[in-house]
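Supplementary Note 2. Why include the ligand at all?

Several targets in our set were suspected to adopt different conformations when bound, so apo predictions alone were not considered sufficient. For every target with a known small-molecule partner we therefore ran a joint prediction. The input for guanosine-5'-monophosphate is given below.
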Amino acid sequence: MLTNIITEEQITQTKQLIDNARQITILTHISPDGDALGSSLGLWWFLKGIGKKAKIVVPNKFPEFLAWMPGSEEIVVALDDNELADKTVAEADTIFFLDFNTLSRINWLKNSAASSTARKVLIDHHPYPDIECDICISYPEISSTSELIFRLICRMGQQRDIDLKIAECIYTGMMTDTGNFSYNSQSPEIYLIINELLKIGINKDEIYNRVFSTYSVDRMRLMGYCLSKKMKIYKEQRAALIYLTLAECEHYNYQIGDTEGFVNMPFSIKDIDISILARQDKEKIKISFRSQGSFPANKMAEEFKGGGHLNAAGGESYFSMKKTIDMIEEAIRNRKKYEQ
Ligand code: 5GP
Ligand code: MN
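The joint prediction is reproduced in token form.
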């Protein structure tokens, strides 16, 4: 039996809101990851299954290794068709915000979402949600939004509507947000849920391979290059930094998602508990922060206009690579400051 995490009131309200909805739009964050897509597609298939009209809109493209997910071809990508994306948000009478806690995470969709008069539901696991909503289902102690979708459907009394497609989407989100259950994954209830998903028929080993065993040769070589040439270790601070310029990415024919997971690699080194990846793209440098144990990666990310979870956070820099690295190194030197 799962503990009742989501409150009874939130369940009743969400059920009622879904019952009354005529057109639902699901929104998730920029550079959608496995949990963003898993929770969105899981909810989408569920809503369709119970006869609701629903669409998913994302700000930009998702990586190839998630394109196998059932239903992904129907997702509206705002960067590809901005007009359709805005229209899909505007025509909804009910909007679900999944896997993000602030409207800036949906970038160019922010205005259409904010100006919509639709009923709004947030379902998320990032701390401190600041989106105005009718229902705010925010539980940072839960390791993925996909898990919250599973819990929501069950608590609405509709566990029997979870078919194989929904189960695959939910499992993918749970798996990717925990690094295949290697962090944020101590809760015994995660495995109760996986037990249910296995009974529905998911092939967990195959899902692992679909997501994690799909490197291109270029991506594999880029990984080797990062480890051999671009990884700095700060022994005293138990930290590692990998940084890539735009030219280096282009040299390895960088595709969206190619550096996904690279930030976790330095944790294979004994005693490292902070790892940072800085990757330059055309307009900015995207920085990923990861930690193990109690070091707050999100506090460090706040120095770079970002945020996130205790152990996984992100931010960005509009300065040069050199200046950005100086700033990151300064933050690393001052690690104690964030630990207070
Ligand atoms: P990633 O490093 O994989 O891009 O992001 C890890 C986590 O950090 C995300 O799940 C999200 O919670 C958070 N995050 C990443 N980038 C940003 C950002 O620019 N701003 C905020 N507030 N959070 C971010
Ligand atoms: Mn998530």
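The pocket of guanosine-5'-monophosphate (ligand 1) is lined by residues 126, 288, 306-309, 312-316 (CB under 6 Å). Residues 34-49 form the longest helix (16 residues). Comparable summaries for the other entries are listed in the accompanying table.
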